[in-house]
Design goal:
The complex is a heterodimer of chains A (about 280) and B (about 25).
Chain A lengths: L16 H17 L4 E15 L5 E15 L19 E12 L2 E13 L2 H7 L12 H17 L3 E14 L4 E14 L17 E11 L2 E11 L44 E5 L1
Antiparallel strand pairs in A: 1-2, 2-3, 3-4, 5-6, 6-7, 7-8, 8-9
Chain B lengths: L27
Classes of the chains: A mainly beta (about 280), B little secondary structure (about 25).
Chain lengths: ~280, ~25
């Protein structure tokens, strides 16, 4: 239905500061409401119409294109600090329609609809002939890789036992034959080393999430898994601006499963769960 | 005498208002 008096709307430039401000509010809204997957960043503003509102204010109708970043939505890192997933990594694009009400210079989202789709295999092949493509998340090899990686992580973890929360992304690498998987985990009230029956463990009331990247290599007569997990500080109910330094990524190195557990550089024991970022490498 | 009709001319290249600039790359 037309908004405001009649069909009069104005069409500012898509690169106007005001239009960009509206688009950035929209992208923030996406990243705060995405239930799973990865944060998105603004790529292009396709179209904008501004309708006058009664008794005051304006309604911005805006179409934007976004690109997926490498930060999971559970990662507290601000999206400005997140790297855009590149074409050769099988990029994912978002296509969104928003309506934002501007009153007293402040935007608020009234309507949001987004679709996302991975780049085509042909486009990925154009920039990198041998790069792996995204795999279905319910592929048995992907599920097995995530479960094996989490088991390896829990077996070496001195803290609480973690359960699989979501498989977020996976690729089947042809050479060497391996499965790369990214997934999120959630802390439970069991101790990792003692948790014999995962079913007996319940999730912590104060959710503690982690994000893992793992590769399962298929070897002759066996398999080898390397996993890196970053456990995030338990989030308060509403997301608060992070303290200085809370988002510093700790450099991680991948070690084989047989090596003794190693700890983040500069420490001699595992970080306590309360520290801002706790990366455990196995 | 023969006079040319006045023809309007754009001051410079007309930048289409939309779509806007691509900040990263197009998929």
């Amino acid at each position: 239905a037309p908004h405001g008096p009649g069909l009069i709307y104005r069409q500012p430039n898509c690169d106007d500061p005001e239009t960009e401000e509206a688009a950035l509010v929209a992208v923030d809204y996406i990243n705060q409401h995405l239930p799973w997957g990865y944060k998105h960043t603004l790529n292009q503003i396709d179209e904008v119409k501004v309708w006058p509102q009664q008794p005051f204010g304006e309604m911005f109708e805006i179409e934007i294109d976004t690109l997926e970043t490498t930060c999971h939505v559970l990662d507290p890192t601000p999206v400005a600090g997140c790297r855009v997933r590149q074409l050769k990594e099988h990029a994912v694009e978002g296509d969104c329609d928003f309506q934002l009400l501007k009153v007293n210079g402040k935007f608020s989202v009234v309507y949001a609809k987004c679709d996302s789709s991975p780049d085509s295999a042909e486009d990925v092949r154009k920039v990198c002939r041998d790069c792996p493509l995204l795999a279905p998340l319910n592929d048995t090899r992907v599920v097995h890789a995530a479960e094996a990686a989490l088991a390896a992580f829990n077996a070496r973890n001195n803290g609480s036992n973690f359960q699989l929360e979501e498989i977020s992304r996976a690729q089947l690498v042809p050479l060497p034959p391996s499965t790369y998987v990214e997934f999120t985990i959630s802390g439970t009230d069991c101790v990792a080393k003692e948790a014999t029956e995962a079913a007996n463990c319940s999730l912590l009331a104060k959710k503690q999430y982690g994000f893992c990247k793992a590769t399962l290599n298929e070897k002759l007569g066996g398999e080898e898994v390397a996993v890196t997990c970053t456990v995030f500080q338990t989030q308060p109910a509403t997301s608060q601006p992070q303290p200085e330094g809370a988002n510093e990524a700790v450099p991680t190195a991948v070690v084989d499963a047989d090596a003794p557990a190693s700890y983040p550089l500069g420490t001699s024991e595992p970080l306590s769960a309360g520290s801002p970022i706790d990366t455990r490498v196995f | 005498s023969v006079v040319q009709p006045s023809v309007g001319a754009a001051a410079g290249p007309v930048v289409p208002p939309c779509p806007g600039r691509v900040r990263h790359f197009k998929v």
